[in-house]
User: What shape does this take?
Amino acid sequence: MTTKRALAGTLAAALFFSLAPASGAFAEDIRVPVGSQVDRSQQSMPRTGMTQASVRAAWGQPDSIETAVGQPPISQWHYGKFVVYFESDRVIHSVLTRQR
Assistant: This one.
């Protein structure tokens, strides 16, 4: 019985090691064109902690506003090149939008 167990273990190991390298062949390759990458330091955007009034004073009226949802209330202001996320009256994050 130990011979059968050893043989089964050897076959399982051989099968595993012969198929393992093939799993890398199914990996997805994602390429981002160099021209579409933007350095955040080159784009002027609101900083974390700024108030809605200071954002409006510095960047003007947003193109659109998505009203607050959830608890705590999170709202979005959309500008041409970025979106600003607010928790209540304060900026929590600014994100560059994809330029097409």
Remarks:
- Residues 2-96 form a domain with the Beta-lactamase Inhibitory Protein; Chain:B, domain 1 fold (CATH 3.30.1450).
